[in-house]
Amino acid sequence: MKRIFLFISAVLSMGALSAQETVYPAPAQTITFALTNATVHIGNGQVIENGMVVVSGGKIVDVRPNAAIADVKIYDCKGKHIYPGLILSSSNLGLVEVGSVRATVDVNELGELNPNIRSLVAYNTDSKVTNTLRTNGILLANIVPQGGLISGSSSVVQLDAWNWEDAVVSADNGIHFRMPSLLNRRGGGRGFQFAQQPAGDPVKRGLEQIESVKAFFREAKAYYAESKHEATNLKFESVKGLFDQSKKLFVHCNIVKEMLIAIDFAKEFGFNVVLVGAADSWQIADLLKQNNIAVVLNQLHDLPVMADDDVDQPFKTPSILQKAGVLFSINDDDGNTRQRNLAFNAGTAAAYGLTREQALSAITLNAATILGVADKTGSIEKGKEANIVVADGDILDMSGNVISLAFIQGRQIELTDKHKQLSDRYKHKYGIK
After folding, report:
1. Residue 420 is part of a domain; what is its CATH number?
2. pTM of the full predicted structure?
């Protein structure tokens, strides 16, 4: 009886997922096409009213005011808006499917210092989360490992691929260091910890861990200074790109004293540092600009770090960084919405000081620049990959974020997901049109 029940459950599960399983990666673009009669948001602050975008061979070949064009496939986008594909600056997409099911979580590694771990090779292109992001305009993501002090390397992927080899846009673009908390408290704001903390002074323990990371990088520097190695050290080899700045050091931290230590890393080792989280970056915006430190704001829809901060401080932080000239991107790391609210985080920033085009840049071109892929994507410019979204209205607004067309590398992708399938299922059941 138990076997029969399991068999029936499996069949029902397969039936519920079958529609999504037929969403295959799109084939390479073979026909030149043009998106016409639309408002084109370049991603760098410029807007072309009644413009057109011409795509051939997976690349953008022309962006200009609307004009007659022959011998190409035409997508008439009258009344609609064209945007660059949105980019998640930091995500566990493809590494975590269901957080409460251990078998679907492949984001953490044992140990404290794991720079040699590559998130890319664990990336699951068949994740059911991916399609829910594409239908919200998100076409690229930076896949980041977790755990320990040095978690490993992240990679940028596009979200329409058979496997990680097909998906990769930029492999191993940065090493991620998770700064130990230097906040000596047990509750309130982002510092709240549900898990039982070890005995002793947490700040002292954090400073000791930070010193161990510095010692690791000093040893790595000495390792590179050797003309010949008696043995290959994989951990040291994996951070070599930090010293020649072919890779970036992404430092996950929030409060000022932690960010000052991150700046110290940049000065001592010559690293190209990016702050991830950086909730209190508004307090030292000028210092970040002076030291050429970029910022990934992980979550705008959140409480401030300190109880006496303005309750809307996370909403205002992007405009403060913008005015100071700090390069920053806006991200969404909400575990409940699984990054789908990226555009709406930017929309909130637009309501609190940014222009709408500046907010758009924060989830497109700025993100691409921070991730080192701005030569390939992030804006609708000639020569870049055709990662393009067509929305019925303002993509930063929930009422306008209705994606009618999306292209990755010029390939028109399918815009369906599990959410849409369930919606259609119950509309059909109750005769709703």
Report:
1. 2.30.40.10
2. 0.91
